[in-house]
Predict the structure.
Amino acid sequence: MELLNDYFNLGDDASSGELTAAYEKLKNTFSDRVFLKGAEGETAARELMRLQDNYKSADIFLKNRDFKEGNAEISEMVKRAAKSGEADGIQAYLDVINDKNAYWHYIQSTVYYIKKLYFDALRHLRLALSMDGENAKYAKALFKLEEKILIANAEVFEEEE
């Protein structure tokens, strides 16, 4: 990607950590000059805004490039979210992914499950399984969720009687 190579001076195989380090280095350079008077300060302010835009674009590129099953960073994010009950970080990650593949729907179902939106989670698990019908992990998650919903509904009906 041109931004990684030309702007941040990184290769196409750069990691998110490398991008962040390059961004911080450039940010510090421009931040020091922003408060200068005159054209130099104005130029630095424009460059800082350009840097932020380029960083966002490069970050989105890396997230799309690296979004695949088995990515340790995504797995760790899901584990942290499940433990804390806070899924906004994963949702923000998912929101920038262009290819809504089976894995994307599986992770989206996890976000909805964490938020206790079980029917939305069910819908995305069914989509994931329809796209990758041989995936045992998706099938197992769908079975467990359907079972949980059935048990919850049975308990509601018992309480009403």
